[in-house]
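Need tokens for this chain, all 356 residues.
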Amino acid sequence: MPEPVLEATGLRKEYGDVVAVDDIDLRVEPGGSLAIVGESGSGKSTLAKTILGIESPDAGSSLELGDHALAAQSSSRPTSDKRSIQMVFQNPDSALNRGWTARHILARSVSKLTGLKGKAVNERVDKLAADLRLTQRHLDLKPRQLSGGLKQRLAIARAFAGNPRIVVADEPTSALDVSVQAAILNLLSELQIKSKTSYLLISHDLGVVRYLADRIAVMYLGRIMEVGASETVFRGPNHPYTEALLSAVPNVDGEARQRILLEGEVPSPANPPSGCVFNTRCHRVIRGLCEVTEPPLVEVEPGHLMSCHIPLEELGRLQKLAAERRETLVTPPSPDATPDEPGAVAGGETRAAPPA
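Here are the structure tokens for all 356 residues:
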């Protein structure tokens, strides 16, 4: 296994009594893409901020860039480390200076991150623009004069100004129309092939990250529920939370798929449930166990880690059965419910899906 370009060990971030990120371990491989997926409130954006140095991780957390430790705060990091880790924000409007032209924005980033001067800066700006399919006319416009897709291309070009080793992309396409999303994803893929840059993708949409990510980590309430290669996560068996997220991804291959309705909000991180933090919304909860004991994150098959009391083989059997029946599973479960079908787990409520 190659040495990671970025490695976090025991990463934790508290805000008073609120644990936003709880003991996270992750690796980003050279030229690879790791996606962090979860609902709003899962802690994925806070995780990104601690890696970027926007927020300081708690004492005992370890962040390494290649062969050396990263300073907790971005302001304490040398220029070489700042250049190595760049960010693409969800909303380019809030990340771009409205008073500057696109050319000025890119030239300033190139100059600060690379030390280039004069003609060399202009040549670098022209190359970035060409890579992101921005014309010379676009470069002379200000962000407010650009469409949403062009603004995001400008933001991506700025992130690549210093030839970064890692680009952290926080919901890079969620604010864009579907057709524009596809174009941006294609550009990100092309840039990665050319530059061998690693990606850390933050998203709530498994359908988007499937296109770019080599590995997927699923977060819930500040914890990693499951992590594995993209094809493994999409093939299953899955953690019940991942299973619920996957059930919302449009299915284009015609295969039957159960629908899991995650009702209720993500619990407050200031008062997380006891035991497994997902037990209050889990359609496969085991009463008397899940709300008492938190399952560790363990390797259930090579390269595939999961935090669940139900063995992988049993999860596979239950998920296959639900798919065959085209069930719609509803959460949170009723505490008084009892299994009435082979393979059902106490507490889960199921109902037949309407015919297609």
